[in-house]
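Sequence in, structure out.
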Amino acid sequence: MQWATGLAIGETIWVVGLCIWIIQDRRSPVATLAWIFALAWLPVAGIAIYLLIGPRRLTRKRLHYHRGTKRLAEALRHVRTGGRSADIVQAEHWRPLMELGRRSGYTLPARAHAIELFTGGDACFAAMEAAIAAAQHHVHLETYIWARDIVGRRFGALLAAKARDGVEVRVLIDAIGSARLGRGFLQTLRAAGAEVASFNPMSLARFRPDLVNFRTHRKILVCDGRTGFVGGTNIWDVHSAAVSGSAAWRDTHARIDGPPVSDLQLAFLENWQFANGSAPTSAIYFPERGGEASGPWMQILTSGPNSDHHTIEKFCFAAIAGARRQVMITTPYFVPNEPMLSALMTAALRGVTVRIAVPSRNDHWLVAAASRSYYEGLIRGGVQILEYGPNMLHAKVLIVDDDIALVGTANMDNRSFRLNFEIAAAIYDCAVVEQLTGFFEHDLQSTVKVRLRKAHLMNWLQRLLESTARLFSPML
């Protein structure tokens, strides 16, 4: 009996010590309790797991990222003093959202010379390739997935040719998303004179790459600091109808010309600084900063696990909460957290038309199952859920009323809002929003409205799967 008493005392001391240690991280109550229970059941292995993938490791990554961005900010002080003002914006209700973006994301709104939208991968790729071909000084490319396929090899050959011509080429790929690109492919780029960096490599990530955090999910292309691209399109054959035919993914991407490109440039350089250890800081990379333009108002928003501001999440919440007439959301991965769920249902209950387009066939079955677990409550609250198919819907767009939209890389889930690096363009313009609304209305022709499913008619195994998947929502 003495050994049992000693074991109980030891376990008690262990659990109390864990509580004191983990509580000091000041994470959410759910996350804190989850780690306490996990480590209580795994006394030895749990500590190694916690140090390897837990919040302490994330804290170390954040400190490393902050040190790099601080050095970059100091070096770029001479090119960041121009600033821009939104004092002359026409719509008063834009100001709170612009202010939110300024205070949480530190970016000021600016007018672009022009914005061009793409809903097909081939048109987007053609525009990106044309911009790269026309570049005279530099090309900066950051992407989550770059595949070694037809489209990927085409981009590789073009970038290598530009590097050989003396244009500065910097390529930043996510080490997990582009893991299959291969060293030989990248070495060809380097041999041509391009600089290539991988964002946050992790040797153990190959076991469950879909659960690894601190990734760059951004898709950024900047050419000569004047032309930029942002959106959901990866460099991958699945986006190309010319290659994949009718199975090509439906996505949304934007080309931006003018002053807002400076903030795309800054976002790229911050991640480049983290991955490479240094970044260029000459004013030549920011030719449009503080410049004048007469096109649409917009604001580049960034978010990531390096910051507690969660700018894109806050913007989406505030925009939905302030909607007066309609909210339209297009997202491939819809796993809303409690605040977003509340904002959507409250908007619908206020009489706002809320429509959410999601894929009928998702490429991530666990996300799809978790997503469907939210449908019943939303539909009962007046939200319309529309499943798009048969091809994959990969666009990430939020439209509010007639003059506010968000186009970028962020999905409507916790992984995009809090765990990965994302970027989006907040657009304040009636004409652009009208065009995006037209895209949404066109997509409706390929959607089926989700109806309420009676609990007693549902397959119990399916209901169990969806409910279980919902437990993993914070990680999806």
